[in-house]
Amino acid sequence: xxxxxxxxxxxxxxxxxxxxxxxxxxxxxxxxxxxxxxxxxxxxxxxxxxxxxxxxxxxxxxxxxxxxxxxxxxxxxxxxxxxxxxxxxxxxxxxxxxxxxxxxxxxxxxxxxxxxxxxxxxxxxxxxxxxxxxxxxxxxxxxxxxxxxxxxxxxxxxxxxxxxxxxxxxxxxxxxxxxxxxxxxxxxxxxxxxxxxxx
Length: 199
What we know:
Strand content: 5-15%
Structural class: mainly alpha
Radius of gyration: 19 Å
Order of helices and strands: HHHHHEEHHHHEEHH
CATH topology of the largest domain: Nitrile Hydratase, Chain A
Shape: globular
Distance between the termini: 47 Å
Helix content: 40-55%
Number of helices: 11
Number of strands: 4
CATH architecture of the largest domain: Alpha-Beta Complex
Strand order of the largest sheet: 1-4
Protein backbone atom coordinates (compact mmCIF):
# COMPACT_ATOMS: atom_id res chain seq x y z
CA UNK A 1 0.00 0.00 0.00
CA UNK A 2 1.37 3.39 -0.96
CA UNK A 3 0.98 6.32 1.40
CA UNK A 4 0.11 9.66 -0.12
CA UNK A 5 1.42 11.44 2.96
CA UNK A 6 4.98 11.85 4.12
CA UNK A 7 6.80 10.01 6.89
CA UNK A 8 5.27 12.46 9.39
CA UNK A 9 1.98 10.52 9.04
CA UNK A 10 3.54 7.73 11.10
CA UNK A 11 4.80 9.99 13.89
CA UNK A 12 2.65 10.18 17.01
CA UNK A 13 0.85 13.50 17.46
CA UNK A 14 2.83 14.21 20.64
CA UNK A 15 6.16 14.00 18.77
CA UNK A 16 4.91 16.23 15.96
CA UNK A 17 3.66 18.74 18.51
CA UNK A 18 6.99 18.71 20.35
CA UNK A 19 8.91 19.20 17.10
CA UNK A 20 6.66 22.10 16.09
CA UNK A 21 7.05 23.74 19.50
CA UNK A 22 10.84 23.39 19.31
CA UNK A 23 10.94 24.91 15.82
CA UNK A 24 8.75 27.87 16.78
CA UNK A 25 10.81 28.45 19.93
CA UNK A 26 14.12 28.35 18.01
CA UNK A 27 12.80 30.93 15.54
CA UNK A 28 11.67 33.19 18.38
CA UNK A 29 8.01 32.99 17.43
CA UNK A 30 6.81 31.71 20.80
CA UNK A 31 7.99 31.98 24.38
CA UNK A 32 8.05 28.48 25.94
CA UNK A 33 7.27 29.90 29.39
CA UNK A 34 4.14 31.60 28.07
CA UNK A 35 3.11 28.41 26.27
CA UNK A 36 3.66 26.34 29.43
CA UNK A 37 1.49 28.80 31.33
CA UNK A 38 -1.33 28.49 28.81
CA UNK A 39 -1.18 24.69 28.92
CA UNK A 40 -1.13 24.67 32.73
CA UNK A 41 -4.14 26.96 32.80
CA UNK A 42 -6.21 24.62 30.67
CA UNK A 43 -4.99 21.51 32.51
CA UNK A 44 -5.52 22.75 36.05
CA UNK A 45 -7.55 25.96 36.18
CA UNK A 46 -9.81 25.72 33.16
CA UNK A 47 -10.85 22.17 32.68
CA UNK A 48 -12.80 19.16 33.84
CA UNK A 49 -11.74 19.69 37.46
CA UNK A 50 -13.82 22.87 37.49
CA UNK A 51 -16.84 21.03 36.16
CA UNK A 52 -16.31 18.25 38.69
CA UNK A 53 -16.42 20.82 41.50
CA UNK A 54 -19.72 22.16 40.13
CA UNK A 55 -21.19 18.64 40.00
CA UNK A 56 -19.98 17.69 43.47
CA UNK A 57 -21.46 20.89 44.91
CA UNK A 58 -24.80 20.16 43.21
CA UNK A 59 -24.80 16.62 44.59
CA UNK A 60 -24.24 17.80 48.17
CA UNK A 61 -26.13 21.11 48.23
CA UNK A 62 -29.79 20.86 47.09
CA UNK A 63 -30.24 24.63 46.96
CA UNK A 64 -27.16 25.04 44.77
CA UNK A 65 -28.45 22.23 42.52
CA UNK A 66 -31.72 24.13 42.05
CA UNK A 67 -29.85 27.32 41.14
CA UNK A 68 -27.61 25.37 38.77
CA UNK A 69 -30.53 23.84 36.89
CA UNK A 70 -32.38 27.19 36.81
CA UNK A 71 -29.44 29.37 35.67
CA UNK A 72 -26.31 27.39 34.95
CA UNK A 73 -24.14 30.34 34.00
CA UNK A 74 -24.84 32.25 37.22
CA UNK A 75 -24.51 29.21 39.49
CA UNK A 76 -21.24 28.17 37.87
CA UNK A 77 -19.94 31.74 38.26
CA UNK A 78 -20.69 31.49 42.01
CA UNK A 79 -17.78 29.02 42.16
CA UNK A 80 -15.55 31.38 40.20
CA UNK A 81 -15.77 29.69 36.80
CA UNK A 82 -16.63 31.94 33.88
CA UNK A 83 -15.11 33.39 30.77
CA UNK A 84 -14.78 32.79 27.06
CA UNK A 85 -16.93 29.91 25.78
CA UNK A 86 -18.82 29.96 29.05
CA UNK A 87 -21.04 32.98 28.56
CA UNK A 88 -24.26 30.95 28.47
CA UNK A 89 -24.17 27.44 29.94
CA UNK A 90 -27.35 25.44 30.42
CA UNK A 91 -27.17 22.50 32.82
CA UNK A 92 -29.39 19.45 32.36
CA UNK A 93 -29.72 16.57 34.80
CA UNK A 94 -29.41 12.88 34.06
CA UNK A 95 -31.82 10.64 35.96
CA UNK A 96 -32.59 6.90 35.99
CA UNK A 97 -35.14 7.48 33.20
CA UNK A 98 -33.65 10.38 31.18
CA UNK A 99 -30.13 10.55 29.79
CA UNK A 100 -28.74 13.73 28.22
CA UNK A 101 -25.76 13.75 25.89
CA UNK A 102 -24.07 16.76 24.29
CA UNK A 103 -22.88 17.22 20.73
CA UNK A 104 -22.05 20.19 18.52
CA UNK A 105 -23.36 19.36 15.08
CA UNK A 106 -21.78 22.39 13.38
CA UNK A 107 -18.27 22.56 14.84
CA UNK A 108 -17.05 22.01 18.40
CA UNK A 109 -18.81 24.49 20.70
CA UNK A 110 -17.92 23.45 24.22
CA UNK A 111 -18.05 25.00 27.73
CA UNK A 112 -14.33 25.62 28.21
CA UNK A 113 -14.47 27.13 31.72
CA UNK A 114 -15.88 23.89 33.16
CA UNK A 115 -14.63 21.23 30.75
CA UNK A 116 -11.40 22.61 29.31
CA UNK A 117 -10.57 21.94 25.68
CA UNK A 118 -12.81 19.54 23.77
CA UNK A 119 -11.43 16.04 23.18
CA UNK A 120 -10.68 14.96 19.61
CA UNK A 121 -13.65 12.56 19.46
CA UNK A 122 -16.04 15.43 20.27
CA UNK A 123 -14.82 17.29 17.18
CA UNK A 124 -14.90 14.22 14.95
CA UNK A 125 -17.46 14.53 12.12
CA UNK A 126 -18.65 10.96 12.70
CA UNK A 127 -19.51 11.66 16.35
CA UNK A 128 -21.21 14.94 15.43
CA UNK A 129 -23.37 13.32 12.74
CA UNK A 130 -24.10 9.93 14.27
CA UNK A 131 -24.91 11.04 17.82
CA UNK A 132 -27.97 12.87 16.52
CA UNK A 133 -29.17 9.96 14.35
CA UNK A 134 -28.32 6.95 16.50
CA UNK A 135 -27.36 8.08 20.01
CA UNK A 136 -27.98 4.72 21.71
CA UNK A 137 -25.66 2.92 19.32
CA UNK A 138 -22.92 5.55 19.55
CA UNK A 139 -23.10 5.54 23.35
CA UNK A 140 -22.87 1.75 23.33
CA UNK A 141 -19.79 1.93 21.09
CA UNK A 142 -18.26 4.36 23.61
CA UNK A 143 -18.90 1.88 26.42
CA UNK A 144 -22.17 3.20 27.85
CA UNK A 145 -25.06 0.74 27.76
CA UNK A 146 -28.44 2.23 28.63
CA UNK A 147 -31.64 0.30 29.27
CA UNK A 148 -34.23 0.43 26.50
CA UNK A 149 -36.65 2.38 28.71
CA UNK A 150 -34.17 5.22 29.29
CA UNK A 151 -35.05 8.19 27.10
CA UNK A 152 -32.01 9.77 25.44
CA UNK A 153 -32.06 13.51 24.76
CA UNK A 154 -29.33 14.88 22.48
CA UNK A 155 -28.39 18.49 23.26
CA UNK A 156 -26.85 20.48 20.40
CA UNK A 157 -24.26 22.92 21.68
CA UNK A 158 -24.00 26.20 19.75
CA UNK A 159 -22.19 29.51 19.98
CA UNK A 160 -25.24 30.85 21.84
CA UNK A 161 -25.83 27.96 24.26
CA UNK A 162 -23.37 25.45 25.64
CA UNK A 163 -24.60 22.44 27.61
CA UNK A 164 -23.26 20.74 30.71
CA UNK A 165 -24.67 17.44 31.96
CA UNK A 166 -25.23 16.98 35.69
CA UNK A 167 -24.62 13.23 35.91
CA UNK A 168 -26.40 10.89 38.29
CA UNK A 169 -24.69 10.53 41.63
CA UNK A 170 -23.52 6.93 41.93
CA UNK A 171 -25.17 4.73 44.53
CA UNK A 172 -23.15 4.22 47.69
CA UNK A 173 -21.62 7.70 47.71
CA UNK A 174 -24.25 9.34 49.91
CA UNK A 175 -21.82 9.45 52.84
CA UNK A 176 -18.97 11.05 50.88
CA UNK A 177 -18.26 14.77 51.35
CA UNK A 178 -17.97 17.15 48.43
CA UNK A 179 -14.17 17.05 48.25
CA UNK A 180 -14.18 13.24 47.92
CA UNK A 181 -16.81 13.32 45.20
CA UNK A 182 -14.84 15.68 42.94
CA UNK A 183 -12.27 13.07 41.78
CA UNK A 184 -15.07 10.69 40.75
CA UNK A 185 -16.56 13.07 38.18
CA UNK A 186 -15.16 12.73 34.67
CA UNK A 187 -15.31 14.98 31.65
CA UNK A 188 -17.09 12.23 29.71
CA UNK A 189 -19.85 12.02 32.34
CA UNK A 190 -20.38 15.80 32.05
CA UNK A 191 -20.76 15.45 28.28
CA UNK A 192 -23.07 12.48 28.77
CA UNK A 193 -21.08 9.73 27.08
CA UNK A 194 -20.33 7.98 30.38
CA UNK A 195 -21.70 7.59 33.87
CA UNK A 196 -19.88 8.35 37.11
CA UNK A 197 -18.64 5.17 38.73
CA UNK A 198 -18.66 4.60 42.48
CA UNK A 199 -15.21 4.42 44.08
